[in-house]
């Protein structure tokens, strides 16, 4: 692979580098141009722009400045792409940067980010990961080692002005229902710490004020956090603007379905080798208004899983909810956390494992009123000992401690 | 395999057979007794007790009497099982009955059952399936053929009186929030068409009035509709009453994750070869209050999937919802239905395919506020032609029609 | 599945049943007729015609009459099949007969059958197997349990008179090089115990004298013993005679690659549900003179293997042979047998395990003169304990004894 | 990953670099030292020391100097390793060198190297490969693209003086049976072009004269060409000398089982990230005299194969051979080559595909005298079109030409 189309400088902040941005807007200028059929490499900074360190304190996670996220590489302009086309993107290869080969996982504090189970786990925690070839291992999570499914947490095309306006309108309406909620219901545009590639001046100010935050997935892809967008995948993206303007970032060495700790994958900087092509008029031909993809051929292969079930009954109140898959998955996650606590892990460590290991989260039943049934598939061979029920748990597989914040 | 421990007579209704029941209650008398270590066969009627026919009219689906469901075989008393134990159940083999080898799938009418997408698909439809060894094929869904993942939609232990009371209380509270809703929010106990094995007399009347309906999954297992509880799986069930009292039914030749048509699997009668064992005191040892399982080793192996994404924005109103996985999966399902309509299928046929084929429904991202991201994995080799995006869809893979109700 | 097209009576010998035969010859009369597109069931006796019993003595294996083998069901005439066509056979389902659900594995005595390692294992041994749904377990091989890959050891079309003459000529020429060898180099035609379906009289005598033995695989398929011809496979057979005349038998519940004990699979009676079709003129269109197949989708899935290597150096003499894959696989098998002996198994038991469990035998390197490198993949999860090298072997996984002959 | 423990200079020949060698001998001095538990990177030159170019002429393959091969990196001394131990080597990651990311495959000329099918394919041919992330594609083999299973063709520990003497003695005895054969029966020691790391002087001359050639696999591992020794594999090597002295090379981006073109893999330079450990006294504890390994978790996953069968009848003479797996695999390979010729490939191109694509070669039956049955599994999704038999082959999937020698 030749010189990257866009490189990153890990020693300088993103806003000093023209190939990076952290908002979605059609006017962010392309950082590079390619043609259909091209193969090229992009480099990405980690999503926090280097705010988190490889150390044993969770202070950086607790105090992270989330107005900075996510640092994306791009946009890449694809010659000939027009609104209504499908942009075909092959993820030919993905991996960490040789010069920065480590990762981190955080539980965000309730007051600064939160996460799926923030009411149960309100305090910041961190685990740092060593990469041993295709495997990851953390000194903060002993007894666990697994092969990664490297993927970009975030990849998408630029929205049109109209689509952007729709996003901003509907998310503002949601926030308006409970504007003081902590954590917030949605992250609305903010100029603070906006990075917009080479854009400068008055246009910068306008775009920073309008640009959508990168937190959620939307109709263009975005922060889907789909762990199976890994090596060899082919994605079909709707094209909303001339040139498609593809951006990506938030590289994950591994992640469990749901990314339930929020900063939940093994976060890292990284590279991607891409191939792009076009299906002219593809959105209409196939009636597509959201991305579609084909997974790649080399995901890790597991034989043995332990599967936890969850239903939509709130464990805090005993209240029955109506076919609520979010709650059902919460219950499956909590069941798995409680279970792992039998084997020597703290519940925070168990959460960090489920956020990062290649677990599968399934919507198994969603019609059996009033309960949804969600299931969590935990591959058992990631542990150094046997966790399947037998005569009683072995309490010494885990141990140690996640990184804590200073008190 | 020797004579079944419990056989069914397909020519007679369930209430005339002592080994069957259709409510959950600790006082339903055991239909048979086994010991830990035993291997035995159970036979099951289809969940509707034979109300649906192998024909080209959906009248039977439209008019089905849902007070009859689900017809379960059991309870089986396991010697030595006591509350607090884990009952270990191996599904050694599963399959259709040689004497009744066909299946059906229905879309329930909005006024009689409904389903996950009942607002979009309010009318009854049906597809009938021929089993060709391990494969299923339907004259109502041409161009589709796939290997089944046979499983019991419903399997569980009996609740204790206390647990039953909890269920009835919490579900009644939910119904009370909108008692006239169609479809109903939950199915509360009803004596109508209650079948309770050999129970008779005043105790029958009391149990029929108290017995929980079998529709939802709960803390004992029940109607989980987990397609991966297939051949070779091992399940660990909490034991709530002496003898554990295991029951099962609702056999599926195949089902997609979610069972999104409600009567959405390929429904059939069938058999199961079981092995049972006990982990004494296992609930406390492992801190379990819901079932846990290990999938079996012979699920079909697919190389190629097409994956559809959904986010929690309501497609009817454009409204942004907060991390709603149920809605996100709805969007993924609708995207897949729209997509399949490019290939010659009606949208009802597409729904029937997604309810029955071995699709996977995943909770991919559930922390990226305000959107959940759910994904639907459709194995592409189940179709007779290529459905991956290329220069344009081949509109002739499908064709024909689902079975309609008479007008 | 309706009534079998051809049934077997397990209580009577094959020669009393018109649908069975044990030689290959174009003049064996069809036992049934089907049309392209038909789906039908065949039943098969075990390959020895019931000579082996479910007991703890290997006398029956030691004394087996091999002139009786293999008992095949058929031939089935396919309407419209002509020489030069390809017969497409789908193995829709396969399994044991409910009324005879057990299996056996034998090590043949050197003087009566022999086998791949007969110089090392010259005495008869036997293991009997219980089927527990999809799993097999033997009281003679404790500590082992695995899912079967059910397949017909033997399936093929009838040879033309010319092809039959070629077989007999070339095999006689081989035997002539060492006519007194024990075991024999090849089994030449013999009228003793010939079973030829409904054939009688002078034609019987001629066909019995000419008919090829069923022992080896040949250009029509035959005794390929390919373990992956399992559920859902599609086979393309050359057609050499009008009607194709398909026969099959030698049902195996499971077998390791190589079937290294000769009577090495888990042998049983069984059934097969078949679908047949034709590609007219397919042999010329595709240039085929031997069968081709597509494996099915539901073979067991293993994550962990232990792999043994063998090279073509004779372990008895230290002699270097030239790229001899047969010898290299012998060395890999012996390495695995020696290894398993560390865990409490006798070497005869280890051989019985490798003959029956779903091991894979690979030709890894075949150009690196003078050594071939063959590898044996042993799935480790079939054992009740861990057999991967660590600080030292656990000598108590196995135990017990294979069935011995009376002395 | 930090600086490699041993780097290679691609611009200089191996004999000018102290970390490389091309013979096996216990006295080749260690190029580096590690301790049990260490993780480190090695770099490897391609096996020919750069003799083959990325161009459209096969002259370099035809004229290759084979006294130079194989260029190995090492030996690496492992502190504490003693004869009788097992050296545990984890292949944590493997890949091409970023600065040399391409590959080649050759058919060697009969007079200079030959190969498995050299009597059928006596002339030199070449294909050059582009790496597109995890995929490989060759301009000389259009219509084919597949994910690689990167592995070292060659990895092993140093032999003891005694073991080396055994090798030289037994291989000389084989050559003596036909000393003038072309190609040779075995490659005996030769000082010509011997490269021995830092060794110099009289010791160099003696070791060069005694050192075993690296062509075959032997009791220490060596040139096993096992394609499944890929990412994440763990190998247990016998230790024959103090320090174990591990060497490796002959990196393959991909290879089919058998490596049937001899220079048959996709040959390249590359890197390996290794972890080493020791099992003290492991050879005796486990009775091991050859390597053992566990495959890794990320091999490509295929759903569809087309399987070709071969038996041990010589296609040139019609002669029946006795259970000859080498011949049976030859027949399976030739059947596959003939078959691919229906789709627009020359037979040389078909051979190049089978040597490089992730085909599996299986010993299916090896007891059915007089035939062995070997099978070749060809994954069908590596082709741009459908190669499964239907109404007739599509002759336009392939095309173009392998690189030819100048005439």
Automatic annotation (TrEMBL), chains A, B, C, D:
PANTHER family: FORMAMIDASE C869.04-RELATED. GO terms for molecular function: hydrolase activity, acting on carbon-nitrogen (but not peptide) bonds, in linear amides. InterPro entries: FmdA_AmdA, FormamaseFmdA. Pfam families: FmdA_AmdA (PF03069). SUPFAM superfamilies: Acetamidase/Formamidase-like (SSF141130). This is Formamidase.
């Amino acid at each position: 692979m030749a010189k990257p189309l866009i490189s990153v400088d890990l020693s300088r902040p993103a806003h000093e580098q023209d190939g990076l941005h952290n908002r979605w807007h059609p006017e962010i200028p392309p950082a590079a141009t390619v043609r259909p059929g091209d193969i090229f490499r992009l480099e990405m900074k980690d999503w926090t722009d280097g705010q988190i360190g490889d150390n044993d304190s969770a202070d950086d996670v607790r105090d992270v400045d989330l107005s900075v996220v996510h640092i994306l590489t791009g946009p890449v302009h694809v010659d000939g792409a027009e609104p209504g086309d499908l942009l075909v993107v092959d993820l030919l290869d993905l991996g960490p940067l040789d010069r920065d080969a480590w990762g981190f996982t955080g539980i965000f504090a309730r007051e600064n980010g939160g996460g799926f189970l923030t009411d149960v786990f309100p305090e910041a925690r961190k685990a740092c990961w060593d990469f041993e070839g295709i495997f990851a291992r953390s000194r903060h999570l002993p007894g666990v080692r697994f092969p990664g499914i490297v993927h970009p947490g975030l990849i998408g095309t630029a929205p049109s002005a109209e689509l952007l306006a729709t996003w901003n309108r509907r998310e503002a309406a949601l926030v308006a229902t409970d504007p003081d909620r902590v954590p917030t219901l949605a992250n609305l545009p903010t100029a603070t710490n906006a990075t917009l590639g080479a854009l400068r001046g008055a246009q910068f100010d306008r775009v920073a004020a309008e640009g959508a935050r990168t937190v959620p997935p939307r109709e263009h892809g975005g922060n889907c956090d789909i762990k199976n967008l890994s090596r060899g995948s082919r994605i079909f993206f709707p094209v909303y603007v001339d040139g498609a303007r593809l951006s990506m970032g938030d590289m994950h060495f591994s992640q469990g379905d749901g990314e339930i700790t929020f900063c939940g994958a093994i976060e890292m900087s990284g590279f991607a080798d891409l191939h792009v092509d076009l299906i002219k008029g593809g959105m209409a031909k196939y009636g597509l208004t959201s991305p579609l993809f084909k997974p790649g051929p080399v995901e890790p292969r597991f034989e043995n899983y332990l599967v936890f079930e969850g239903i939509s009954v709130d464990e805090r109140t005993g209240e029955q909810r109506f076919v609520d898959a979010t709650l059902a998955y919460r219950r499956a996650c909590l069941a798995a956390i409680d279970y792992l606590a039998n084997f020597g892990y703290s519940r925070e460590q168990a959460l960090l494992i489920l956020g990062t290991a290649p677990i599968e989260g399934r919507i198994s039943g969603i019609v059996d009123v009033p309960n949804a049934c969600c299931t969590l598939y935990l591959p058992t061979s990631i542990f150094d000992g046997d966790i399947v029920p037998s005569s009683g748990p072995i309490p010494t597989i885990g141990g140690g401690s996640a990184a804590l914040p200073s008190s």
